[in-house]
């Protein structure tokens, strides 16, 4: 059975991105998600490295959402486990250059800004911290967003280069 062309292209692009930045990554179950695992790190340290990497791109400091805390707090009312994450934060930010490219292509691309990168750890996976982000739309602006996200994630992971490994699902 042949692999669909779009999937082939996406996998090739991911492989090239991983090779380019020498930071192993895997595609998450969601075809639009990219995840990097950083071994022997703390969420606070990876979060600081991420905000530094965003600043190095000339982007204003990101907003921080305490996603894991929200899930833990709402677990009793919603009926899910409170310990889905040991810690989970989502950082959102916007590049004026990328936003302008996306908006120029289509006013409806407003939904693709701000960009976001998650930093999280799992209860059963002590010592590993993950970076995750969604790929953007298939357009020149989307590719610019993807390249920016990949650069920021790779720069963040490079701070822990001795400890980067492929994320597994």
TrEMBL record:
UniProt keyword annotations, A-Z: Signal
Tree of life domain: Bacteria
InterPro entries referenced in this protein's UniProt entry, alphabetically: TT1751-like_sf
Signal peptide segment: 1-22
Protein name per the record: DUF302 domain-containing protein
Organism name: Parazoarcus communis
Species lineage: Bacteria, Pseudomonadati, Pseudomonadota, Betaproteobacteria, Rhodocyclales
């Amino acid at each position: 059975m042949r692999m669909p062309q779009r999937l082939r292209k996406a996998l090739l692009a991911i492989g090239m991105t991983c090779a380019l930045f020498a930071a192993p990554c895997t595609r998450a179950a969601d075809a639009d998600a990219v995840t990097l695992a950083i071994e022997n790190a703390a969420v606070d340290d990876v979060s600081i490295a991420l905000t530094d990497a965003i600043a190095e791109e000339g982007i204003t400091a990101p907003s921080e959402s305490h996603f894991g805390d929200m899930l833990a707090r709402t677990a009793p009312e919603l009926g899910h486990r409170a310990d889905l994450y040991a810690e989970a934060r989502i950082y959102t930010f916007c590049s004026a250059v990328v936003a302008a490219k996306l908006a120029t292509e289509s006013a409806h691309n407003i939904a693709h800004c701000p960009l976001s990168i998650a930093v999280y750890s799992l209860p059963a996976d002590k010592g590993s911290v993950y970076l995750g982000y969604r790929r953007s739309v298939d357009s020149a602006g989307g590719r610019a967003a993807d390249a920016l996200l990949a650069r920021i994630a790779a720069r963040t992971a490079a701070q822990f280069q001795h400890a980067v490994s492929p994320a597994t699902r």
